[in-house]
Specification:
The two termini are 40 Å apart. The strands form 3 sheets. A 7-stranded parallel beta sheet has the order 1-2-3-4-5-6-8, covered by helices on one side. Strands 11-10-12 form a 3-stranded mixed beta sheet. A two-stranded antiparallel sheet has the order 7-9. The longest helix is centred in the C-terminal third of the chain and has 20 residues. Helix 2 packs parallel to helix 3, helix 7 runs parallel beside helix 9 and helix 9 crosses helix 11. It is built from 13 helices and 12 strands. It folds into 2 domains: 257 residues, TIM Barrel, CATH 3.20.20.70; 69 residues, no CATH class.
């Protein structure tokens, strides 16, 4: 089923603190307070460009701040404005993003009443030391407790994690992914940490206390995370920050790339191709690499980077589409013509 969010940002609304890495103004490109009229306009625009169909799921999504921690009257105002558009045809539900320590039974009952169908939690890490260093203000147990409540109330559960956090390591990120998978979310978002102006992390960078991931390091790690969640049957619905807004303007350092997911998927295909060639006993020479039709560009790599890498290893590769192959599945054969 195809899916689309009408994304509405509530920057810093409800956030009880500023985390080391956070500058919602840069991330969302928005600082003006969201209104009910803004919701109506966004809905109208969405309907003009996409007609409803049985295989199309459209949600109204509140992102940016900690939705369930904002002032109660304002939260209800936004939910009221969104809920009137939930009809099961044009819009199937409301998706909200919030903090693990801003969820309780009362909140869940309110969300249910207004038609909220999915709740995403900004876990970021499942390591208490890393959470503390980054001023998150919650613990890994808070994440687990909140997810149990959300799932128990029948909401679709989404979890968000970050790589390259201050005090983190690739090993910690993989452990976080494993702990997140054990909580059985339906969806996951993965955000490599970038340094933005106006954040405490920018000060740590300036003082030499923080070294951001390089793009190569982030791609390598996030490709492993993406492959892990794929094997676990968990959909990674976002990998890397959205391009646009004021991200580029506020960017100082770190692995930001407008096509970050594409880089990660290309890395997965390169690894799969190498393993397939090894398993087939093909040591060098002209070879055909077969992937599902939609993955030809990922297997080729940006600017043919994967083919260039394999060429340096002795392979002259031709990438071809093959029906019947699944995502991340690679088949290789010796090219005879």
């Amino acid at each position: 089923m195809k899916h689309m969010n009408v994304a509405l940002f509530v920057p810093h609304e409800g956030c009880p603190r500023q985390c080391n890495f956070c500058n919602q103004r840069s991330i969302s490109g928005q600082s003006r307070r969201l209104t009910a009229n803004d919701i109506d306009k966004a809905v109208e625009t969405s309907l003009r460009f996409q007609s409803p169909s049985p295989d199309f799921k459209r949600e109204i999504a509140f992102f940016g701040g900690s939705f369930t921690a904002i002032e109660r009257g304002y939260m209800l105002e936004l939910l009221e404005a969104a809920s009137k558009h939930i009809d099961g045809r044009n819009f199937t539900g409301i998706r909200i993003s919030t903090r693990p320590d801003a969820v309780n039974k009362e909140i869940c009952e309110i969300l249910k009443h207004y038609g909220v169908t999915a709740v995403e939690l900004g876990a970021q890490s499942m390591d208490d030391k890393v959470l503390k260093l980054n001023r998150r203000g919650h613990t890994a147990k808070d994440v687990a407790d909140a997810t149990n409540l959300i799932s128990g109330c029948g909401f679709e559960l989404g979890l968000q994690m970050m790589t390259g956090l201050y005090g983190s390591s690739p090993e910690e990120s993989m452990e976080t992914a494993q702990k997140i998978a054990a909580l059985n979310p339906k969806t996951v978002r993965i955000y490599p940490t970038v340094v933005l102006r106006g954040t405490p992390l920018a000060g740590l960078l300036a003082n030499g206390e923080y070294r951001p991931q390089t793009l190569r390091e982030a791609v390598s790690l996030c490709a492993s995370l993406l492959a892990f969640f794929f094997d676990e049957g968990i959909d990674v619905i976002r990998l890397g920050l959205h391009s646009g807004g004021d991200v580029e303007e506020g960017y100082i350092a770190g692995p930001y790339h407008p096509a970050f997911r594409e880089l990660c998927e290309s890395e997965i295909y390169l690894r799969k191709a190498r393993q397939t060639l090894k398993n087939a006993g093909i040591e060098r020479g002209p070879v055909k690499i077969f992937v599902t039709g939609s993955a030809v560009s990922q297997m080729t790599g940006q600017k043919r980077s994967n083919l260039t890498a394999l060429k340096a290893e002795g392979y002259d590769c031709k990438v071809l589409p093959q029906t019947g192959l699944n995502r991340y599945e690679v088949y290789a054969g010796i090219q005879t013509t």
